[in-house]
Amino acid sequence: MADKFDVIVIGAGPGGYVAAIRAAQMGLKAAVVEKWTSEDGKPVFGGTCLNVGCIPSKALLEASHKFVEAKDDFDDMGIQAGDLQMDVKKMIARKDKIVANLTGGVAGLLKGNGVTSIQGTGKVTGANQVEVTDNDGKATSYETENIIIATGSVPVEIPPTPLTEGLIVDSTGALEFQETPKRLGVIGAGIIGLELGSVWCRLGAEVTVLEAMDSFLPMVDTAIAKETQKLLKKQGLDIRLGARVTGSEVKGKEVVVKYTDGNGEQEMTFDKLIVSVGRKPYTKGVVADGLGIELDERGFIHVDDQCRTGVPSVFAIGDCVRGPMLAHKASEEGVVVADIIAGHKAEMNYDAIPNVIYTFPEVAWVGLTEQEAKAKGLNVKVGSFPFAASGRAMANNATDGQAKIVADAETDRVLGMHIVGQHAGEMIAQGVIALEFGSSAEDLALTCYAHPTMSEAVHEAALAVDGHAVHMVNRKKRK
């Protein structure tokens, strides 16, 4: 039997490594188990987010946006940029360097906080026992007072489009293209599909997005979703709704995709095809049978409001449990669970988790949409403000989009905030704080905002809730 710990975390992604560090900071003897290794055999920390998800995709999104901005918008600002070219291989190399820096940084944080790193595949074999199998097949058991399962998720594969190296790829493969494909197909108009489609569309690819659902971004406020769809279409994304993929065939260096829509059976040919139809929890083989830890039919581990499984000493967080599959949600759950294990009272407000789509403009939201609020039987009032009326947005050449606030008509309590616009992902924090503190729309309206800023649109939207917006014609009668 190896060393005994106060807590062992299985998985070193944004949920796992944060939980381990927090536990160590609380004075607990903590260890983290990670099976992902680099080519030289060293453990790779950061999980999907840092390695093949959030961070690398944002590096490509930022680079491609700067390219298209320089190509299409600089001249309007008086900047003569000349004939621009994108070195795709250099862009990918920069992305890889950023990933290496961050994953190395996580390794340093774990070591600096005294967290023991255990390399191998972890499995919960008892209420206080974790078995780790290394790359050579050797299994070692570790005793621990508490266990946190943070094994994350993996991309969903679908039978009609089996992955084919270099041609039919998932979101990971889409981050490794060494040149811009001429014709790119994307299956799935969700967050990942739209972000990856945007990257390669900006660099010159003809991008077609095939979405089986008839509605665009159904989880987003309807007004924001409609505007987003219009803007992405204007940028060149061909988004086809109600398009259900039925099959694919690799012909040489091309992929022929068959799908059905309202007009019957269709067929398109692509040079590359990205499958981005969602993610599923990675929980297979993580828990031994008969322990009392339940998984649902989709593989999610059942937990209570404190992320505790059916075994009191075993917790689960992040993508492998209920709730949105978001890195920041996993991290916050990691902090909460570590605090609970350390004997503190802690809880997480699942009603105040922000979501962001990092297209341009960005789309961000938190809380209830107008439609969700009404479906709950709430009487709501809404205020919105277009960036077209914002001085800073004009100066930034970023007048697309709007900020929208949904409030309870009786209490004035902010129920949700929704933004499509430049830096929406940064501005949405105002909505998160408003929900966290139970703010009213009037609280935001009475707050002094710096001028000129993009955030003034949030201020004006709050004023508009009661018809008091200053910088646009009011459509409501003043109170």
What oligomeric arrangement do these chains adopt?
single chain
Task: Give the CATH topology of the largest domain.
Answer: FAD/NAD(P)-binding domain
The outline comes out as globular
Which class of secondary structure composition applies to the elements? alpha/beta
Q: Count of DSSP helices? A: 12
Description:
By secondary structure, the chain is α/β, with parallel strands linked by helices. The chain has three domains: 4-155 and 280-348, FAD/NAD(P)-binding domain (3-Layer(bba) Sandwich); 168-277, FAD/NAD(P)-binding domain (3-Layer(bba) Sandwich), CATH 3.50.50.60; 352-464, FAD/NAD-linked reductase, C-terminal dimerisation domain (Enolase-like, domain 1), CATH 3.30.390. Helices cover 29% and strands 25% of the residues. It contains twelve helices and 22 strands. It has helices at residues 16-25, 47-52, 54-72, 88-112, 191-202, 222-235, 327-341, 370-375, 391-396, 424-436, 441-445, 456-464, and strands at residues 4-10, 30-34, 116-119, 121-126, 129-133, 139-149, 153-155, 168-169, 183-187, 206-211, 238-241, 244-251, 254-261, 264-270, 272-275, 279-281, 314-316, 355-357, 362-367, 380-386, 402-408, 414-421. The strands form five sheets. Strands 1, 2, 3, 4, 5, 6 and 17 form a seven-stranded mixed β-sheet that branches. Strand 1, helix 1 and strand 2 (30-34) form a beta-alpha-beta unit. Helix 1 runs parallel beside helix 7 and helix 3 (54-72) packs antiparallel against helix 4 (88-112). The longest helix is centred in the first third of the chain and has 25 residues, at 88-112. The protein is globular, with a radius of gyration of 24 Å. It starts with a strand and ends in a 15-residue tail after the last helix. The relative contact order is 0.11. Belongs to the class-I pyridine nucleotide-disulfide oxidoreductase family.
